[in-house]
Write a structure and sequence with these properties.
Blueprint lengths: L9 E7 L2 E7 L14 H5 L1 H13 L8 H8 L3 H13 L3 E4 L4 E4 L8 H4 L2 H11 L3 E4 L2 E6 L2 E6 L6 E2 L2 H6 L7 H11 L3
Antiparallel strand pairs: 1-2, 3-4, 5-6, 6-7, 7-8
Helix pairs in contact: 2-4, 3-4, 6-8
Length: 190
């Protein structure tokens, strides 16, 4: 971090005999730790839903999940397994230990899909995609949202958009609803 850079989440760890205490601080009260919207890509893909169902069956209460081993057992790429683990994490089925940089199996009393229901960008992106609001033309897509049309450049992994969300965050808090809708449409997701 340098002078003038935006605030970031931070983690502080105290190691004691037989235990570890980690304190994580969000840059703002209203912001969380879900990758600032980066998990939306994993939650938006239809294939991740099926992958997460498969991976959840293969979890065996390991204190540390070996992603490569899980990928081999599931017949999936490690990228798809990580996306599935992200989806399971938002459902309380998998945790991530930042100190160990590893996933672990757990079961929290969350309802499946609850994170998706409460995420307005994901919910709005699904509605735009289902309504046929996305038109893809080469490297640019247009998305009709209300009475406005936004342009999305979908040539790179981080898609730029002409909307106020993109102008304010530049991908630092995940994709906007228009970029998500374009991604869903180009992949053929619901």
């Amino acid at each position: 971090m340098t002078a003038g850079s935006p605030p970031l989440a931070s983690a502080w760890e105290v190691t004691l005999p037989g235990m570890r205490l980690t304190l994580m601080l969000s840059p703002q009260v209203s912001r969380g730790f879900s990758g600032e919207g980066a998990v939306l890509e994993a939650l938006a893909a239809d294939e991740v839903r099926a992958d997460a169902d498969l991976i959840s069956v293969l979890l065996a209460w390991e204190p540390r999940i070996d992603v490569a081993d899980l990928a081999a057992r599931a017949g999936l790429t490690t990228h798809r397994v990580r996306s599935a683990l992200t989806r399971l994490g938002t459902a309380g089925r998998v945790g991530y230990d930042a100190a160990e940089a590893a996933y672990f199996h757990r079961e929290l009393p969350y309802r499946v899909g609850q994170a998706e229901l409460h995420n307005p960008r994901l919910r709005d992106a699904r509605a735009l995609a289902r309504a046929g609001a996305v038109t893809v033309d080469g490297e640019t897509a247009s998305v009709r949202s209300g009475d406005k049309v936004y342009l999305v450049d979908h040539r790179s992994a981080v898609m730029g958009c002409t909307c106020p969300w993109w102008a304010g965050h530049r991908g630092g808090r995940g994709p906007c609803k228009h970029a998500l809708a374009v991604r869903m449409t180009t992949r053929g997701d619901d």
